[in-house]
Design goal:
Elements (H helix, E strand, L loop, with lengths): L12 H10 L5 H9 L22 H14 L3 H10 L1 H7 L12 H11 L5 H12 L8 E10 L7 H19 L1 H7 L2 H8 L12 H22 L12 H13 E5 L5 E5 L23 E5 L3 E13 L10 H6 L10 E8 L4 H14 L6 E3 L7 H9 L3 E3 L8 H5 L9 E3 L4 E3 L8 E7 L2 E7 L2 H5 L4 H4 L8 E4 L2 H13 L3 H7 L4 H13 L9 H25 L10 H10 L1
């Protein structure tokens, strides 16, 4: 397929007349075409298409279809149907009223081409560039970030289902790729009886003994199939089939192979306490989505999937405590809509603090580093706060307080009770004793300092129960290096003030943005499988939210009253 850059075609005169008559007040699709038509061009997609072959549909047009699809939360079939029957969509795409549109299968092929060429964020970045040029987003303002969970597009599997389904997926792939080889390697009727229907707990044995026996059978079948694929007389390319490699990984992660005292090979399920299991960020959860991971947040939320971080501008909602002079200076800024400036999708097991630096770097690469970045307590660390400040960004975020037993009980001597002499490399305790050890170390890939007090001093101390309960009998402290310790102490002191708390209230608005993304685009449920495609989904979801907010900004009519409650409309208005 080749590309002949044309962009969106001109809107035919008949389509203009009918669309204007049918929509005298306009519609989202019509206003997007009139105001944002220059965003949806073909040139940014040139590298994804060849120069030879039959010309394909305009990628600029398909990207506009995809944005409108997400803005309406439509399936591929529904979006393709809208391009045929919706007058305002025909106007947006520049089609004749008699145009028969395109088949819905064009859209997944278009997305696959974008993912294959690393172009998941092209449309999002193009729209953001337009907003920067139009003065709707500016560098050095206020931005806020929060994350939410994303449920994968595959069903949840327990360990028994995963073991059986991984074998089934490999057999399905081999039945198509090498049917003759498979017929020679295994007993096809037996395997078809066991793995023909999908592996489902509702159809598996109810007793624990029978389920354990079936688990062992799944492991033996996987081992047998792996040995057949990796045998010298098997075609080498069989090992490159994705489902076969996934089965091998599940076999290693789920089972152990031992030789009994009688010399018999025994395949048994791994037990966490005895055999160990892979850590969560490495453990496969489905043979159909190898990027989806199980994760938990608190005691109530447990999901299989991903995590998405949304960052938005928030200059148009200054705190009430600001001076009138600042309010007047920001009068023009308050006229801007809050727009999403970054969307980052990660595995569900990646903690928020690991996403902070990439998000801030992406904002800097777009020329939109914030002067103030509002985040919750999961994002900061002493290193990140210092690094961001050196680049001109103040992280307005509550840092985690001292988590030692003494600090949590509010009844003992926490770190703040000790006086640190950084130059002399000594620490004095509240009873006047001086430390005897100062040990620079590396902990969790970070520089740290372990301070130790003499056992003779601690054991004779009258307040020892209030200071330490360690079996070794003496108090030890773990400190950050001086510059980071100072940053952390200052942040902890500042976040206790009323001024800081009033300022931090601005962060709460991002919760409404996540709610809006959930209501409009269904962002918490993955449409596709695999991290690259989920990233593409979230990039288009963020683009659709920005388009909806821009439309509300242009029309000063945020939502249709017939579709939402007054409370929901107020929530959107406060965040948009």
């Amino acid at each position: 397929m080749s590309l002949r850059p044309m962009g969106l075609p001109p809107v035919p005169e008949q389509t203009v007349r009918v669309a204007r008559a049918a929509f005298p007040q306009g519609s989202l699709a019509i206003r997007v075409r009139d105001r944002l038509g220059e965003v949806f061009t073909d040139e940014p997609f040139a590298e994804a298409f060849g120069v030879r072959g039959a010309p394909g549909l305009s990628p600029g047009m398909l990207s506009l279809v995809t944005v409108l699809q997400f803005a309406e939360n439509l399936t591929d079939r529904q979006a393709a149907a809208m391009a045929i029957r919706a007058i305002d969509w025909k106007y947006a795409l520049g089609l004749e009223l008699t145009d028969t549109g395109f088949d819905h299968s064009v859209l997944p092929r278009f997305r696959a081409r974008l993912v294959g060429n690393g172009m998941e964020r092209v449309v999002f970045d193009r729209l953001l560039e337009y907003c920067v040029d139009a003065g709707l987003v500016a560098t050095g303002g206020k931005q806020r970030t929060d994350s939410t969970h994303v449920v994968s597009a595959v069903r949840d599997l327990n360990r028994l289902e995963l073991a059986g389904e991984s074998v089934r997926a490999a057999l399905e792939a081999l039945s198509v790729a090498a049917p003759d080889w498979l017929a020679r390697a295994v007993d096809v009727p037996e395997f078809a009886h066991r793995y023909g229907p999908r592996v489902d707990s509702w159809k598996l044995p109810g007793s624990k003994v029978k389920r354990d026996q079936l688990s062992q059978v799944y492991g033996q079948d996987a081992l047998r199939l792996c040995r057949a694929v990796w045998s010298p007389d098997a075609p080498a390319w069989l090992r490159e089939i994705g489902a076969v490699d996934i089965m091998r990984q599940v076999l290693v992660q789920t089972y152990t192979v031992r030789t009994s005292s009688r010399g018999k090979e025994v395949v048994s399920k791994r037990e966490a306490d005895e055999d160990g299991v892979p850590p969560g960020h490495l453990r496969l959860a489905s043979p159909y989505d190898t990027d989806a991971r199980w994760s938990a947040k608190g005691d109530d939320l447990f999901w299989l999937g991903y995590k998405v971080h949304l960052t938005e501008s928030c200059d148009n909602t200054p705190p009430e405590a600001e001076a009138e002079a600042e309010a007047e200076a920001e009068a023009e800024v308050r006229g801007r809509p809050n727009l999403i400036t970054d969307v980052t999708t990660t595995l569900s097991t990646v903690p928020d603090v690991k996403a902070t630096a990439p998000i801030q770097q992406q904002l800097a690469d777009r020329g939109l580093p914030p002067a103030e970045h509002y985040l919750d307590s999961g994002y900061p660390s002493a290193e990140l706060i210092e690094t961001a400040r050196s680049r001109g960004t103040v992280m307005v975020t509550p840092v985690l307080l001292d988590r030692s037993a003494q600090a949590k009980s509010h009844a003992g001597y926490d770190k703040s009770a000790f006086r640190i002499d950084w130059k002399a490399r000594r620490v004095r305790c509240p009873q006047g004793n001086t430390s005897t050890g100062w040990h620079p170390v590396r902990q969790r890939e970070r520089d740290a300092i372990v301070v130790e007090f003499a056992k003779t001093d601690c054991q004779a101390c009258p307040v020892r129960p209030e200071c330490t309960s360690a079996r070794r009998g003496n108090r030890m402290l773990t400190l950050y290096p001086e510059h980071l310790h100072t940053v952390l102490a200052a942040a902890r002191a500042e976040q206790k003030t009323k001024t800081w708390k009033d300022k931090y209230a601005l962060r709460a608005g991002v919760e409404g943005t996540i709610n809006q993304a959930l209501d409009i685009t269904g962002i918490r449920r993955a449409r596709y499988r695999g991290l690259p495609k989920v990233r593409l989904q979230h990039a288009f979801s963020a683009t659709a939210i920005n388009v909806v907010r821009l439309d509300a900004h242009w029309t000063e009519h945020p939502l249709d009253r017939s579709r939402t409650s007054n409370l929901t409309r107020l929530s959107y208005r406060l965040t948009a």
